[in-house]
Amino acid sequence: MKNLNKFLVLIICLSAFTMAGQNADSVIVIYDNQKTVIPVPAFGSLTTVKYSDSIQVIEIGVSRQKPYDGFSLRLTSPNSSLTTNPKRTRKWFSQVEAGYSLGFVRSKGLYYPEDSLDKTTYQVNNTRPMGYVLGLSVCDKERVLNKNYSYISGFKFGYGQYFRAAKPLPVTSDTNIVFYGYDALKENHFKFLVPFGIRYHFANSKSEALINFGANLGYLISVYKHWTYDHNTSYGDASAVLALNPFIELQIKQIGFQFSTELFVPEPTQILKSSMNFSLTYRFY
How far is CA 235 from CA 104, 122, 188, in A? Predict the structure, then answer.
């Protein structure tokens, strides 16, 4: 008889544990390949989960109530609120940019080649070429560091074109002077860049404003063409160099303004040594 009583007590205990386990319900949410388990709260309470990035906030709520209570926005439970920020996000083809560029050439001056016996003098035209730049963000990666800061990287394409009109040769009686760079110039830049930087989100900003600052590092292929002053003769060349492109950008919602400089190691035949860019940017999402 005692054994039977013990057996009945064991069955009752197992039943109680089973019912308790069944009451511990939860809801599974999968967003941006991130799985979150939301526990179902007590009656009259609300549990929320938030997903946020630089441009949006998604909030999902789970509440428990009686069938006759109906839905009420007054169901709150400050202690049960759960906020989840994805640590990493990746966006494809999310931003374009276009702007004005001012180029800088080698310093003007006179110099004597070391192997020259007759001390021929070369004088360089330092008129600054002007042009435009275009850019496309192929992949934009963001890693959240805290509420305000995140680390950004990715990959982007860039293109720039520069022009400089021909300049009349100075009049001189010195036959040993050779003038360099006085013919017309058109130079094209094809850029393959990897950005590294920091993104700062303004706290409690209704305008969704943010600042991006850092640098793009990559390869630049320069293709250029010259015309002689009389436009009867033309010649061209191409070179590939390492490029460093520091930048800072202020963005409000989807529109931004970016200032950047372009620095690269010039080849012996390359005219431009750096540039300064002023661009407008537009973020699709």
Answer: 21, 20, 14
